[in-house]
Amino acid sequence: MITVFQNIHDMMVELNKNVSQTNxxxxxxxxxxxINRHMLxxxxxxxxxxxxxxxxxxxxQKRPSYKLYKYVIPCINEEGxxxxxxxxxxxxxxxxxxxxxxxxxxxxxxxxxxIAGNEEVVFVTEGxxxxxxxxxxxxxxxxxxxxAYSQKFIENLANHPSxxxxxxxxxxxxxxxxxxxxxxxxxxxxxxxxxxxxxxLPEGYKDxxxxxxxxxxxxxxxxxxxxxxxxxxxxKKQLLFPVSSRLASFIAKVVGSPQRxxxxxxxxxxxxxxxxxxxxxxxxxxxxxxxxxxxLLQIADHMLRNGVCVVYVSMEMGEDExxxxxxxxxxxxxxGEMHTVQGVLTGKMRKEDILMYxxxxxxxxxxxxxxxxxxxxxxxxxxxxxxxxxxxREVVLMVDYLQIMLPPEGKFLSDKxxxxxxxxxxxxxxxxxxxxxxxxSSFNRSNYMQPVNFESFKESGGVEYSADVxxxxxxxxxxxxxxxxxxxxxxxxxxxxxxxxxxxxxxxQRNGIGYAKVPLTYRAQYGHFE
Length: 530
Known about the structure:
18% strand; Rossmann fold; 530 residues; single chain; alpha/beta; 19 helices; 9-stranded mixed β-sheet; Dna Topoisomerase Vi A Subunit, Chain: A, domain 2; globular; DNA primase DNAg catalytic core, N-terminal domain; 17 strands
């Protein structure tokens, strides 16, 4: 019995499940992630059978040749809905076209959803497989679905309020038709005032997909260089436009899709931060053993439970310890059971109890990505990870911690230069991907027993001026008049206690309360704040 779907979107979800039956997409250089992210589909009986399986396609007249079109490429619109698709065939024949647009429907562009996205630079190719090739290596790309539609595409851009938020990089095919298209595009973008440039492929490659298949490394380098130059050009152009020309874009972003405030799960902190965290760079400082990592992991757990994707870059702790901390904290929070991280890791906690607490954790940990300290955890590698994950989901990046982040490859920097460099680039990650970035910072030893202040932060210049929010943890009511042996002893006793009275102190908040103190109780043995 044939399952009949009411609409194209639901049908494409099902057709995407069939791709394991074919190697067609893999042979074009596409990974499983790219195939699934773009909902690429397959039907072994071809387009005629697809028509039969969707109520929304019943007005299309079937043809004998349609059975040869088995590969389905959805065109996702700016609302994230699939109501149009392309069909491809791998059969040979003089009368066959490789790509078939959906009959009886106005042509839609592949990946038009990027028009409403946050990417500053968007590539535009002739064919969908060329756009998918660029998406494969991590950059946003649309496709015209034919060189013949270049004028319609640019006219659509000119009439869309979000188009001015992007620089469009057209990469035509390396043939005569592509050359003519490139010349036409250059004239049209000037005529319509669209931010766009045309870039030619290197000799020896017909189109981006062939470039990807034949020489992936050079293709990645080529696209990266074009992207960086286009972004630089776009930023220069932005300086030439008056604010009045950007108001439509402002309304589309702020009214149409305002920044979401993400709760930390701790009411006092949320209240002081205006409801939670949003796009920007947050720096959390404190002395050793004050609970910085525990606080960040508790906040991460809360966000994960609420469907937020968290990327946690851990420079000191391994994945096992992070998971064990969640088990201990959740056991205490949910039932009051008292376990320790050491007890989990050394087998003192019963296997049945561990499995009981792991069951709910397993569900929300699907959105949890732990990056352990290694050669690929410098700020640029972290950026690449965020770029892949932030395409279609809400992401928060957490870095533990700032002072021991690896330097970028090939750069030799002093401690201060490295902190300033990493702060600047973490801020850029936040800005470019419109996400919150939270990083832990250590304190200067000379400020361990002083109230939290800007001087407490190691190499504090970059932190003070670049961060959107600067905050710290300190012991409540501990302000010694002098740093003598008695004060040091009291400080060590506070650090060793299982129940610690602390204050969450806001020193700077660019768009909120400039200074605030939030009382907290930290139960150190269980890694739990309240």
